[in-house]
C-alpha cells in the first residue's frame, strides 16, 4: 500500500466523470516530467531525487553532523519560501509543542531547538531571536538558492554581526553553515571569504521543490531529525510511479485530475483542511508549492489552509454557506496517538474523556472515548456537511506521523503539482510574479540601478 492514500467519496459524481477524462493528459504530463520534456524541464532535478542523489547526500550530511565538534542547543535557520518552509514543516510536525519548556521531565526535546529568521522583515521578530540566542549555543544555517534574496540577506547580516561579536570571527565561521548556489550569488562569495562550510542547492532544483536537498536535510540533521526515512518515504512515491504499470488510478494522478476538474467547473480556492494542528506547516509548504507553481497566466486554484476544529468556529460558516467557488481537501493521519518524546509515533500515551460523578456539562455520552475519536468524528461530520453545502471534498491520508510519511507527502505533492500545472498548461517551475514586488522594493529603498523606478513609485504615493 502506498504511503499517501486518496479518496473522493464526497465529490460530485459529474465531476468524477470529468476528472477521469483528464487522466490521459495527466499521464502525458507525468511522462513529460519523468523524461524532462515538460515546460521548465531544466528544473525537474527533484524528480526521483532520492535515487539520483538524495540517499548519498543524506549520508554525507549525516556524517558531517556526526563529526561536528561544536556544541549546539539551537539551530537558527535563515531562509524564506522554499528555503525554509519544508524544514519547518518537518520540525513542527515531529516536535513537542512545549518541548522547550518541559525541562528534564522526559518529554522535553532531546534535540536542539529550531528557530527561524529571514522569512520576514519584522524588526521585532529579529530582535526576539537575538534575545533568545543570548541564552543559547547556536549554530546558524543560512539558506538561499539565489544568494541575493533581501529578507534572508538582511537577517543574516544581523545574525552574522551578532555571532562575530559574541564568538569572534574564527568560532563564528565554525558555527555558520551556508547553503546556496554551487557557483554564483553573493552568499557563495561571502561564505568563501569567511570560510563557512557550504552545501549546494542543485541548479536543476527550484526553491519550492528543494526540501529533500541540502536545503532541508542540513538543518533537520543538525536538529537531530532522522533524514534517511524522509528520503525513503519520498523514494517509495517515486518508485511507485515507475515501471510502466497502469498509473491512471495512482493517488498522485487522481488528486491532480480531481482538483483540476473542480477548477474547470468553477472552484477557485482549494482549502487544505487538517484535524491535526501539527500538520499546519506542511500545509504552509503545500501553499507555496501550489501557489507559486500554478498561479500564473490568470490561472490556478488559490491554495488556503484550515485547521479543524479551530476554524469551524471562525471560517466554517463561510465554507458552509459562502461563495460556492471552493474545493476542500482533507489531509488526515490514519493512526492516532500522541507523539513520544522523540516527536514520533507510536503512541506512548492516549487521552480519553474522563468520567465524572455529575453530568452538568452533558458529556456523559463521551465518557471513556478517546479525544482523537471525537476529533475524527468532527472531521467526518464536517466533510459531509460541507459536501452537502455544495463544496466538492477530497481526502488524502498518511498512515502515521513520522519522517517517512512526511517524505512521501513531499514527493506526492511535488509530482501532483507538476501534473496539475501541466493540465493547466503553465510552467510549474518558474515564479515570474514574485519579481514585481522585489523591483518596487529595490526602487523604494534606493538600490543602485533602480533609482528611476523608485522615483516613479514615489510619485504615486
Ligand atoms: O520557489 C522558489 O524558488 C522561491 O519561493 C524561493 O524558494 C524563495 O524566493 C527563496 O529564494 P532563495 O532561496 O533564492 O533566497
Please summarize what this structure is.
The chain is α/β, with parallel strands linked by helices. It is 46% helix and 12% strand.
Description:
The chain is built from 16 helices and 10 strands. It is an alpha/beta fold and 461 residues long. The strands form 2 sheets. Strands 1-10-9-7-8 form a 5-stranded mixed sheet, with helices on both faces. The chain has a 5-stranded parallel sheet with strand order 3-2-4-5-6, with helices on both faces. Strand 9, helix 13 and strand 10 form a beta-alpha-beta unit. Helix 1 crosses helix 10 and helix 9 crosses helix 14. Bound molecules: 5-phosphoarabinonic acid. The site of 5-phosphoarabinonic acid (PA5) has 14 residues, from loops.
Using the alpha-carbon principal axes, give the shape. Answer: globular
Element order, helices and strands?
A: EHHHEHEHEHEHEHHHEHEHEHEHHH
- In whole angstroms, how far apart are the ends? 58 Å
Kindly state the number of beta strands: 10
**Bound small molecules, deduplicated:** 5-phosphoarabinonic acid
What is the rounded Rg?
A: 23 Å
Helices, by number, come to 16
Q: How is the secondary structure organized here?
A:
Layout: E1 5-7, H1 13-21, H2 23-35, H3 49-66, E2 74-78, H4 85-93, E3 113-117, H5 123-133, E4 138-144, H6 150-175, E5 176-180, H7 186-194, E6 197-200, H8 214-222, H9 227-240, H10 251-264, E7 269-274, H11 280-294, E8 302-307, H12 316-321, E9 326-333, H13 371-388, E10 393-398, H14 403-424, H15 435-445, H16 451-459
Parallel strand pairs: 2-3, 2-4, 4-5, 5-6, 7-8, 7-9, 9-10
Antiparallel strand pairs: 1-10
Helix pairs in contact: 1-10, 2-10, 2-14, 3-8, 3-9, 4-8, 4-11, 9-14, 10-14, 11-14, 15-16
Bound molecules: 5-phosphoarabinonic acid.
Amino acid at each position: 500500500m502506498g504511503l499517501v492514500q486518496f479518496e473522493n467519496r464526497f465529490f460530485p459524481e459529474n465531476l468524477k466523470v470529468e476528472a477521469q477524462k483528464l487522466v490521459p493528459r495527466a499521464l502525458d504530463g507525468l511522462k513529460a516530467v519523468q523524461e524532462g520534456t515538460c515546460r521548465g524541464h531544466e528544473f525537474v532535478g527533484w524528480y526521483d531525487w532520492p535515487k539520483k542523489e538524495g540517499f548519498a547526500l543524506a549520508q554525507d550530511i549525516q556524517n558531517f553532523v556526526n563529526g561536528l565538534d561544536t556544541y549546539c542547543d539551537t539551530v537558527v535557520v535563515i531562509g524564506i519560501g522554499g528555503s525554509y518552509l519544508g524544514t519547518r514543516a518537518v520540525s513542527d510536525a515531529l516536535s513537542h509543542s512545549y518541548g522547550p519548556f518541559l525541562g528534564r521531565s522526559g518529554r522535553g526535546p532531546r534535540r536542539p531547538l529550531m528557530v527561524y529568521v529571514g522569512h520576514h522583515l519584522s524588526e521585532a521578530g529579529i530582535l526576539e531571536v537575538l534575545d533568545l540566542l543570548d541564552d543559547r549555543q547556536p549554530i546558524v544555517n543560512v539558506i538561499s538558492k539565489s544568494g541575493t534574496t533581501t529578507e534572508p540577506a538582511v537577517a543574516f547580516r544581523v545574525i552574522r554581526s551578532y555571532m562575530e561579536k559574541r564568538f569572534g570571527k574564527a568560532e563564528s565561521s565554525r558555527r555558520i553553515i551556508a547553503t546556496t548556489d554551487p557557483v554564483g550569488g553573493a552568499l557563495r562569495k561571502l561564505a568563501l571569504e569567511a570560510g563557512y562550510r557550504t552545501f549546494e542547492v542543485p541548479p536543476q532544483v527550484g526553491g519550492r521543490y528543494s526540501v529533500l536537498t541540502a536545503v532541508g536535510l542540513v538543518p533537520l540533521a543538525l536538529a537531530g531529525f532522522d533524514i534517511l526515512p524522509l528520503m525513503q518515504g519520498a523514494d517509495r512515491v517515486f518508485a511507485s510511479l515507475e515501471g510502466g504499470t497502469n498509473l491512471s488510478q495512482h493517488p498522485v494522478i487522481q488528486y491532480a485530475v480531481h482538483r483540476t476538474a473542480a477548477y474547470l467547473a468553477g472552484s477557485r480556492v482549494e482549502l487544505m483542511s487538517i484535524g491535526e494542528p501539527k500538520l499546519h506547516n506542511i500545509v504552509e509548504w503545500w501553499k507555496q508549492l501550489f501557489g507559486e507553481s500554478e498561479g500564473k497566466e490568470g490561472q490556478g486554484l488559490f491554495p488556503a489552509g484550515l485547521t479543524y476544529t479551530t476554524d469551524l468556529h471562525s471560517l466554517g460558516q463561510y465554507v458552509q454557506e459562502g461563495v460556492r467557488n471552493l474545493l476542500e481537501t482533507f489531509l488526515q493521519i490514519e493512526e492516532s496517538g500522541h507523539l513520544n518524546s522523540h516527536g514520533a509515533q507510536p503512541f506512548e500515551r492516549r487521552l480519553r474523556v474522563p468520567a465524572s460523578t455529575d453530568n452538568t456539562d452533558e458529556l456523559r455520552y463521551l465518557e471513556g472515548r478517546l479525544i482523537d475519536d471525537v476529533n475524527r468524528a468532527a472531521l467526518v461530520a464536517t466533510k459531509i456537511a460541507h459536501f452537502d453545502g455544495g463544496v466538492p471534498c477530497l481526502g488524502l491520508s498518511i498512515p502515521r506521523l513520522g519522517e517517512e510519511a512526511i517524505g512521501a507527502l513531499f514527493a506526492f505533492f511535488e509530482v501532483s503539482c507538476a501534473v496539475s500545472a501541466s493540465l493547466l498548461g503553465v510552467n510549474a517551475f518558474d515564479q515570474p510574479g514574485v519579481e514585481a514586488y522585489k523591483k518596487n522594493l529595490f526602487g523604494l529603498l534606493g538600490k543602485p540601478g533602480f533609482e528611476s523606478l523608485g522615483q516613479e513609485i514615489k510619485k504615486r504615493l
